[in-house]
UniProtKB/TrEMBL annotation, chain A:
ABC transmembrane type-1 domain location: 71-277
Keyword Hydrolase: no
Pfam families according to UniProt: BPD_transp_1
InterPro entries the UniProt entry points to: MetI-like (IPR000515), MetI-like_sf (IPR035906)
Similarity comment text for this entry: Belongs to the binding-protein-dependent transport system permease family. CysTW subfamily.
PROSITE patterns documented for this protein: ABC_TM1
Keywords: Cell membrane, Membrane, Transmembrane, Transmembrane helix, Transport
Localization terms from the record: Cell membrane
Native organism: Gemmata palustris
Domain of life of the source: Bacteria
Its membrane topology: Multi-pass membrane protein
Protein name as annotated: ABC transporter permease
Keyword ATP-binding listed: no
Length: 292, 262
C-alpha cells in the first residue's frame, strides 16, 4: 500500500476513469478543434466542407484588421482585469487576513457568494448598479461631478467592472491562505526590533506574500483571457473578445472552421501570455525568497 | 501596539476592506431585492412587494424543465468527478508507478484552457455522436472542469492521511477494500464532501459548455436564462437566479447528507 515501485495494474485501473475522460473529452476535442480549423468554410446548412485542407480561415482572421483587433482587445482586457483583480484583491485579502476567526469565515463567505450564484445575478446586479438610475450615477449626479447620467454599461467600463467582479474572488481565495501561511512571529520580531507597522509590512509581510501574488496573478490572467460572459452581456460590439467571437461564429453563423480557428488563436494567446508572465512571476518569487 | 500616527491609516484600511466586501455582495443583494418587484421594469420595489416572478418561474414548463436538467447534469457530474478524482488521487498517493507525475499534471490541464476552446472542440464530437442535449454529454464536460479541483483536494487529504493506519488494519486481517473503507475513507470524508460541493456549484452555474452543448429541448438553467438576459430585462431573471441560489444550497445540503454515512 505504500510507495514501493509496483508493476500491478491496480493504479492504472484506479486512474482509468480519469484517463478515459481526459483522452475523450480533452485531448480529442483539442485535436478535432485543430483539424476543424483547417477545413474550408461552407455556406448554407453545412458547418464545413469535409475532406478539405485550407489555411483560409487563418489568413482571413489574421489578415483583416478586425481579427487582429479582437486578439489585441482580448489581451488588453485580460491583462487589465487580472491586474485590477490582484490590485483590489490584495488589500481585501490583507483585511480578511487581519480579521478574527469568525469574522474571517463570514468575510470569505461574502467573497464566495457571487460564485454560489450563476453569473447572471452578478451581471444583473452590476447592470443595476451602473444603470442610468443606479446608485453610482445618482452619487455622481448628487456630487455634481456630472450633469447627466453617464452611460456605464454596454461599453468597456461595464465589461471591466463585470469581469473584475467575476475574477477577483479567485485572487482573494489564493491570497488569504498565502498571507495566513506567513509566520506571525516574524512580524512580531520585526516590531520588537523597532520597525513600525508600515515598515514591518513593507519589509516582512509584503515580500513573503509575493509568491502568492504570483500565483494569483497567473490564475486571474488565464481566466481573464477567456473572458466570455462579461463582454457578451455587458459589452457592445466593440468589446468582442476571442471567446465571444468563437460563440458567434460557431453557434450563430455555423461557420465551424472560423470558430475553430478563433479558438486555436485563443489557446495560443493564453499560452503566449502565460509564458511571458513567467518572467515577472519569477521576479516576484525571487523577491519573496530573497527576503525570507 | 498601534501608535497614534498609524491609527488613521489602520482605520482607513478597515473602512476600505469593508466597502470592498460590501461592493462584492451588492449585486447579489440587488438581485434578491429585484426578484420581488411587482412590475415589468428594471426597478427595485419600494412600496409593493410581490412573488409574481417566482410564480411565473414555477408555473412555466420551460423553467422547471431547465431546473430539472440542471439537477440531472449536476448529479451526474458530481458522481463522475468524485469517482475519477478519488481513483486518480488514490493511485498517485498510494502507488509508485511510472506515469503518476504525468497523470497528476495532465488532470490539471483543463483548468488552463478557456472553456470556449474546449466547448468548440466538443461541439463537433458531441454532434457527430448524436449526443447533443443529452444530460450525460454536458455532465461529462462539467466533470472535466471540476476534476482538477476535486483531485487536488483529495490528493492533499490522502497525503495527510497516514498510510500506516491502513497498513495496521491490513495487519489485523482486514482486506484492502475494507481497510480503505473503514480507515482511510472516514479520514478523507471532509475533502470528499468539499470536492462534491465544489463540483456541484461549478456544474449548476456553468454557462459556456451549457450554451454550446445544450439544445432548445434540453438546457440547463444558465443556458435557458441567457436569451432572457440578452433580449429582455424582466425581474424573472432575478427570481430565477434566487431559485438557483436556493437550489445550490439545497444541493449542498443533500450532498452533505448523502456523504455523512461514509
Amino acid at each position: 500500500m505504500t510507495t514501493r515501485p509496483t508493476h500491478s495494474a491496480t493504479p492504472w485501473l484506479l486512474a482509468a476513469p480519469t484517463i478515459v475522460l481526459l483522452i475523450a473529452l480533452f485531448a480529442g476535442p483539442v485535436l478535432i478543434l485543430i483539424r476543424t480549423s483547417f477545413y474550408q468554410s461552407a455556406g448554407g446548412a453545412d458547418f464545413y466542407r469535409p475532406g478539405t485542407w485550407s489555411l483560409s480561415a487563418y489568413s482571413e482572421l489574421l489578415g483583416e484588421r478586425f481579427g487582429r483587433g479582437i486578439v489585441a482587445f482580448t489581451v488588453v482586457l485580460g491583462v487589465t482585469v487580472a491586474a485590477l483583480s490582484v490590485a483590489i484583491g490584495y488589500p481585501l485579502a490583507l483585511f480578511i487576513h487581519s480579521l478574527p476567526k469568525r469574522a474571517k469565515a463570514l468575510a470569505l463567505g461574502a467573497v464566495i457568494l457571487p460564485k454560489l450564484t450563476n453569473v447572471f445575478v452578478v451581471l444583473y446586479g452590476v447592470n443595476l448598479l451602473l444603470g442610468s438610475t443606479g446608485p453610482v450615477n445618482r452619487v455622481l449626479l448628487a456630487l455634481g461631478l456630472t450633469s447627466e447620467p453617464l452611460l456605464l454599461t454596454h461599453n468597456l467600463f461595464g465589461v471591466l467592472v463585470a469581469e473584475t467582479y467575476l475574477i477577483m474572488p479567485y485572487a482573494v481565495l489564493v491570497l488569504v491562505p498565502a498571507l495566513d501561511r506567513i509566520d506571525p512571529s516574524l512580524i512580531a520580531a520585526a516590531r520588537g526590533l523597532g520597525a513600525g507597522p508600515w515598515t514591518a509590512f513593507r519589509r516582512v509581510t509584503l515580500p513573503l506574500s509575493l509568491p502568492g501574488v504570483a500565483v494569483a496573478g497567473q490564475l486571474c490572467l488565464i481566466w481573464a483571457l477567456g473572458a466570455f460572459v462579461g463582454p457578451l452581456l455587458l459589452g457592445g460590439p466593440e468589446q468582442t473578445t476571442l471567446a465571444v467571437k468563437v460563440q458567434k461564429d460557431g453557434m450563430g453563423y455555423g461557420d465551424w472552421p472560423r470558430a475553430a480557428t478563433t479558438a486555436v488563436l485563443s489557446l495560443v494567446t493564453v499560452a503566449v501570455c502565460v509564458a511571458l508572465y513567467s518572467w515577472p512571476a519569477r521576479a516576484l518569487r525571487r523577491l519573496g525568497g530573497a527576503s525570507a | 501596539m498601534l501608535n497614534c500616527a498609524f491609527k488613521p491609516v489602520w482605520l482607513l484600511g478597515r473602512l476600505l476592506g469593508g466597502l470592498t466586501l460590501l461592493a462584492l455582495v451588492a449585486p447579489f443583494v440587488c438581485a434578491v431585492w429585484m426578484s420581488f418587484a411587482p412590475g415589468e421594469l428594471l426597478e427595485p420595489p419600494t412600496g409593493e412587494w410581490s412573488v409574481r416572478w417566482y410564480r411565473e418561474f414555477f408555473g412555466s414548463v420551460k423553467w422547471t424543465r431547465a431546473l430539472r436538467t440542471s439537477a440531472e447534469v449536476a448529479a451526474l457530474s458530481v458522481a463522475g468527478a468524485l469517482v475519477g478524482g478519488l481513483g486518480l488521487a488514490v493511485a498517485v498517493t498510494r502507488f509508485h508507478f511510472r506515469g503518476r507525475y504525468i497523470l497528476s499534471s495532465a488532470v490539471l490541464l483543463p483548468m488552463f484552457v478557456p472553456a470556449v476552446v474546449l466547448a468548440m472542440g466538443l461541439l463537433p464530437l458531441v454532434m457527430l455522436a448524436g449526443l447533443q442535449g443529452r444530460a450525460y454529454s454536458l455532465a461529462a464536460a462539467h466533470c472535466l472542469v471540476s476534476l482538477p479541483v476535486v483531485f487536488l483536494l483529495l490528493r492533499n487529504a490522502l497525503a495527510q492521511a497516514d498510510p500506516e493506519l491502513e497498513r495496521a488494519a491490513r495487519g489485523l486481517g482486514a482486506r484492502p477494500w475494507t481497510a480503505f473503507r473503514r480507515v482511510t475513507l472516514p479520514l478523507i470524508a471532509p475533502a470528499i464532501l468539499a470536492g462534491a460541493v465544489i463540483a456541484f456549484i461549478l456544474s449548476v452555474n456553468e454557462f459556456t459548455f451549457a450554451v454550446f452543448l445544450g439544445t432548445p429541448g434540453a438546457r440547463t438553467l444558465p443556458a435557458a436564462l441567457w436569451p432572457e438576459a440578452r433580449d429582455k430585462d424582466t425581474p424573472l431573471l432575478a427570481a430565477a437566479s434566487c431559485v438557483t441560489v436556493l437550489f445550490t444550497l439545497a444541493g449542498m445540503w443533500v450532498t452533505a447528507h448523502l456523504l455523512r454515512r461514509l
